[in-house]
């Protein structure tokens, strides 16, 4: 049975409107002609995500998100997405947006990576941002704005 789950690791974070967010993300996945199997969002601290970045990607830098694609079949979503809540809060201040909007954007960013979108290079980054904006726009269908 397809599932989207939310977990906390080394932080206390309560994502609001979980059920609506699950429906929104599932619909976004289906709009891109993919099938959801299992998608786990793990909200964590900067330090926790830094440890993952060092251990699995050999990067010694802080980041807001790391997406692990665990799917074995094309067009199937099986993934763990780690999100630093500290980075989300900081980014919300920098970009003058709400923490909720920023957490939605970063969750969609990770999901879009699973849907084949990249963010390395100017053209890819531009397309990624367009897709984020497009899918964030679908939130109104689920009462998320």
Our Rg estimate from Cα atoms comes to 14 Å
Name of the level-1 CATH class: Alpha Beta
| Mean pLDDT across all amino acids | 96
Unreliable runs, pLDDT <50, ≥5 residues? none
Quick one: overall form? globular
CATH topology value: Collagenase (Catalytic Domain)
What is the CATH superfamily label?
Answer: Metalloproteases ("zincins"), catalytic domain
At CATH level 2, the architecture is 3-Layer(aba) Sandwich
Order of helices and strands: EHEHEEHHH
Q: What's the end-to-end separation, in Å?
A: 28 Å
Residues in helices, as a percent range = 40-55%
Largest sheet: 4 strands, mixed
* Strand percentage: 15-25%
Task: Explain how this protein is built.
This protein is 47% helix and 21% strand. The chain is globular and about 35 Å long. The two termini are 28 Å apart. The protein has a four-stranded mixed beta sheet with strand order 1-2-4-3, sandwiched between helices. The longest helix has 16 residues, at 99-114. The chain has a single domain, classed as 3-Layer(aba) Sandwich (Collagenase (Catalytic Domain)), CATH 3.40.390.30. A hairpin with a 6-residue loop joins strand 3 (65-69) and strand 4. The protein has 145 residues and is of the alpha/beta class. The protein has helices at 18-31, 46-57, 85-94, 99-114, 122-137; strands at 3-9, 35-44, 65-69, 76-84. It is built from five helices and four strands; from the N terminus they run βαβαββααα.
């Amino acid at each position: 049975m397809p599932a989207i789950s939310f977990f906390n690791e080394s932080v206390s974070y309560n994502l609001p409107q979980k059920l609506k967010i699950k429906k929104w993300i599932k619909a976004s996945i289906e709009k891109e002609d993919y099938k959801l199997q299992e998608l786990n969002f793990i909200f964590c601290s900067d330090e926790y995500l830094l440890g993952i970045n060092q251990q699995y990607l050999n990067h010694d830098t802080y980041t807001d998100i790391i997406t692990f694609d665990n799917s074995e079949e094309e067009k199937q979503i099986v993934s763990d997405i780690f999100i630093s809540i500290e980075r989300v809060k900081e980014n919300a201040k920098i970009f003058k947006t709400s923490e909720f909007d920023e957490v939605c954007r970063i969750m969609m960013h990770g999901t879009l990576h699973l849907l084949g979108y990249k963010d390395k290079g100017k053209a890819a980054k531009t397309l990624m941002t367009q897709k984020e904006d497009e899918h964030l726009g679908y939130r109104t269908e689920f009462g998320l704005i």
